[in-house]
Inverse folding.
């Protein structure tokens, strides 16, 4: 009874064991089929490998869909394959595979499982995802089924084996492709290198020919420069250069023109194969001529490849055609200062343009000619300068920057008592007098360092006699152009002893004229002066007689006598004061500036001219401002200025008979720190055309006048830093006024 259940259990175990064995056999069979795919995948493309793998797995594992993708090294989709029935194929292709399978494509876990909604029916899809690749990730395989138990362990084994086989095949294909690509690249590089070598060989041959030609041209230039160093004349050197450039460019004709500053134009100094008509037009070209205006203006080369063109060489097209030229090039000769020293031109009978090398060599020849021209002209300038320095009557010296004397011209040697061959005292300070030697460190040298020059009056000393020589001295730096680097110190001194003597003589003459003018002024008011003196003298005589009478009484009246004597003393002092003022006005003496009040000076002049005003029936009015600042002037000179203006005003009113004669004298302070004194009359004035000459020497409107008073007044006022002027009054007469600067505290 108990044996039956045991037998049933054994049968069940054998049945399960048999099913397990069948499953294992099936799995082994599936693995064998997958392993056999390796034979088909040899030299197969990645697309073919994925397609075979997908079909095989879908068949043996009864899969619903298979999706496989291969990425390149940058992560982009290189191969993408989807295997499913038609319904699912259309659905999945309508959506992005990358979005639908993103959780498994982006996952770093492999293998990975999961589920996905089936778009065909309500059941879900079970997914198994395994990454493709051996050493690096090549892509991903996603296999899905509707079976609930998918994927089983055996199915995962089959999937892994299949993925490993496919990965090995893909890796081999990648490696083979890389080798094939590398071989193709190598072959391409070798082909390119061979082509480059061929081209380089051809270029080297061309370069060799060019270098040979260039070397020949350079040898010609070197030979020319060597030969020209032995030539003493510049024309021969220019002609040789012209021949060399024409040969280099294969030119039909050529010319060299140099700029002549004195003529203000280009002068042809060398030419080859040019017609008389051409020479008549271009032998001399003035500034502004359009022929070479473009070159002179831009300092750049001009090339005309075809003179028959509508815009090229248009002004001289007929001349060029008549001369048989079609092309030309003109290169400016530009000096080191940027100046155009000339033009080097070549001409061709066919349409032509010189090569870059030929133009480069032409530039070298032009540079050589330019340097030669600049050097020649510099030598001429130096020769002229040396001649000027040697023959100059001024002291001209050159010293080093630290003050050591290096050169002194003959006039300078003679001025300071040095013989022709005598050694120069080294220190430049030793050439100055003792009083000016101290100014070098305190005044002169700081100014030279700050401004680059100094000019003023100094005095030199004669080394033999010790005499002091007053000079006008100009000290400046000799600099290198255009850098401005200081090279040496130069000085030019002009002996002003004769000028000083002439100035002293002229000053003495001016003082004599001024004194003569004062005497003339005194002569004009002599009646007034005599009246001023006669009055106190008559009073003295009367008081003297009265005093005698008081003393000769029986009883002398001492009190009255004393009063008479006091009046005598008062009148004597009054007469003495008049004489003293007249004498001071006329005395010859040295000019001495002092601080003076213009109101006080005006009052002194009016005292001397008081009777003259009364005699001429002139009414005097004064408007002298109070508390005016003082001015710095010589008392006698300032008196002379005021007196000249007053006398001129009195004389200008002598012809007035129809109105009262009025003289108005005013003093005011101007806003510009000046004091103004004006003398206004109501005479008949002078014509406008003569007013501008009123202060000229020897100009006068008086029949007996000499024309000195007002001109001397102008000289005195201007020497004091002021100005004098004449203006017409609105009604009658003229106003003569002068201004003087207010004295500074230092004065």
């Amino acid at each position: 009874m108990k044996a039956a259940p045991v037998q049933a259990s054994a049968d069940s175990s054998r049945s399960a064991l048999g099913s397990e064995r069948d499953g294992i056999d099936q799995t082994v069979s599936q693995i064998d089929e997958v392993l056999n795919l390796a034979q088909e995948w040899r030299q197969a493309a990645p697309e073919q490998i994925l397609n075979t793998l997908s079909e095989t797995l879908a068949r043996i594992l009864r899969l619903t869909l298979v999706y496989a993708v291969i990425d390149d090294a940058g992560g982009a989709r290189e191969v993408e394959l989807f295997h499913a029935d038609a319904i699912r194929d259309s659905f999945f292709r309508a959506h992005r595979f990358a979005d639908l399978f993103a959780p498994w494509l982006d996952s770093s876990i492999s293998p990975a499982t999961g589920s996905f909604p089936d778009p065909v029916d309500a059941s879900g899809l079970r997914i198994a995802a395994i990454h493709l690749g051996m050493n690096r990730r090549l892509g991903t395989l996603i296999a899905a089924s509707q079976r609930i138990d998918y994927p089983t362990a055996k199915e995962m084994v089959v999937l892994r084996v299949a993925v490993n086989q496919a990965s090995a095949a893909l890796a081999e294909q990648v490696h083979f492709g890389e080798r094939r690509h590398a071989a193709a690249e190598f072959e391409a590089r070798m082909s390119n290198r061979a082509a480059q070598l061929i081209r380089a060989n051809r270029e080297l041959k061309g370069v060799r020919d060019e270098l040979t030609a260039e070397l020949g041209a350079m040898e010609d230039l070197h030979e020319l420069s060597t030969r020209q160093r032995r030539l003493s004349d510049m024309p021969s050197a220019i002609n040789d250069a012209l021949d060399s450039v024409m040969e280099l460019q294969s030119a039909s004709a050529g010319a060299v023109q140099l700029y002549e500053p004195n003529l203000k134009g280009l002068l042809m100094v060398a030419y080859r194969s040019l017609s008389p008509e051409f020479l008549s037009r271009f032998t001399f070209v003035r500034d502004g001529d359009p022929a070479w205006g473009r070159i002179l203006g831009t300092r750049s080369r001009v090339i005309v490849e075809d003179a028959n063109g509508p815009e090229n060489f248009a002004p001289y097209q007929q001349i060029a055609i008549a001369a048989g030229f079609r092309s030309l090039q003109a290169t400016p000769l530009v000096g080191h200062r940027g100046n155009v020293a000339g033009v080097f031109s070549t001409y061709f009978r066919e349409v032509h343009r010189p090569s870059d090398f030929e133009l480069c060599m032409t530039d070298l020849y032009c540079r050589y000619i330019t340097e030669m021209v600049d050097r020649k002209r510099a030598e001429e300038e130096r020769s002229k300068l040396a001649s000027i320095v040697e023959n100059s009557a001024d002291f001209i010296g050159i010293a080093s920057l630290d003050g050591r004397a290096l050169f002194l011209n003959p006039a300078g040697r003679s001025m300071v008592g040095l013989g022709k061959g005598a050694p120069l005292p080294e220190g430049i300070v030793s050439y100055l007098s003792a009083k000016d030697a101290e100014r070098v460190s305190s005044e002169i040298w700081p100014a030279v360092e700050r401004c680059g020059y100094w000019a003023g009056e100094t005095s030199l000393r004669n080394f033999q006699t010790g005499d002091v020589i007053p000079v006008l001295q100009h000290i400046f730096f000799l600099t290198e152009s255009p850098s401005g680097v200081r090279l040496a110190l130069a000085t030019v001194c002009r002996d002003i002893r004769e000028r000083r003597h002439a100035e002293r003589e002229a000053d003495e003459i001016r003082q004599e004229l001024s004194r003569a003018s004062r005497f003339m002024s005194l002569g004009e008011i002599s009646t007034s002066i005599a009246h001023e003196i006669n009055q106190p003298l008559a009073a003295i005589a009367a008081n003297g007689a009265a005093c005698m009478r008081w003393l000769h009484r029986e009883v002398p009246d001492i009190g009255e006598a004393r009063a008479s004597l006091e009046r005598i003393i008062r009148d004597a002092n009054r007469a003495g004061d008049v004489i003293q003022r007249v004498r001071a006005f006329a005395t010859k003496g040295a000019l001495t500036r002092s601080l003076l009040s213009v109101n006080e000076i005006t009052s002194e002049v009016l005292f001397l001219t008081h009777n003259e005003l009364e005699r001429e029936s002139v009414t005097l009015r004064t408007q002298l401002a109070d508390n005016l600042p003082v001015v710095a002037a010589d008392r006698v000179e300032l008196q002379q200025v005021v007196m000249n203006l007053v006398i001129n005003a009195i004389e200008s009113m002598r012809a007035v008979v129809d109105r009262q004669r009025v003289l108005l004298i005013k003093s005011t302070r101007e806003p510009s720190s000046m004091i103004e004194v004006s003398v206004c009359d109501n005479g008949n004035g002078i014509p406008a055309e003569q007013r501008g000459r009123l202060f000229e020497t020897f100009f006068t409107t008086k029949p007996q006048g000499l024309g000195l008073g007002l001109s001397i007044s102008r000289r005195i006022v201007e020497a004091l830093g002021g100005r004098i002027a004449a203006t017409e009054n609105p009604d009658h007469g003229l106003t003569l006024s002068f201004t003087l600067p207010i004295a500074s505290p230092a004065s």
Notes: Residues 429 and 437 are 6 Å apart (CA to CA). The chain has a mean pLDDT of 78. The chain has 21 helices and 23 strands.
